Amino acid sequence: MEQFLNGYVEELFSNISGTISVSLVSTLDGSILAYKARPGVDNRLASSYQVEIFRNAVLSFENTEGLADKSVDDVCLVYEGQTHLIGLLQSRKILDHIILDDTANIGMAKLLIRKIRTEAEGKAF
Predict the structure, then answer these.
(1) What superkingdom does the record give (predicted)?
(2) Is the domain defined by 2-123 classed in CATH 3.40.1550.10?
C-alpha cells in the first residue's frame, strides 16, 4: 500500500505544473501517509492541519440551508503566492493536499488532479 500511495504522490507532483508539495493525509488521525516536495520545503505540518479545515468546511456546508443533500469533494484555499487544493479520495479516509505556486494554472491543475485521482482510485485504495 505504501508503494502505491508514494506512486500516486509522485504522479501528482511530476504532472502538475507549479507544484510545491503533495501530501496524502489520513482523515482518521491527520497522519501523513505519503509526501513529496521541492527541495528545502517541508509542508507536512500544514498538510496535517488541512484535515481540520476540510472537516470545518464540510460541517459548514452541511449546515447551510438547501445544501444538505450535497457533498464537499474539494476545497481550494488561496494565500499570497500559494494555492492549496484539498481533495477527498473516494475511500473518504485519505485527503490529497496539493500546494501550488502562483505560476500554476489552477483550472488545469484541478483537471489533472481529478484525472489522476480517478485513475488511482480505479486501481486500489
Answers:
(1) Bacteria
(2) no
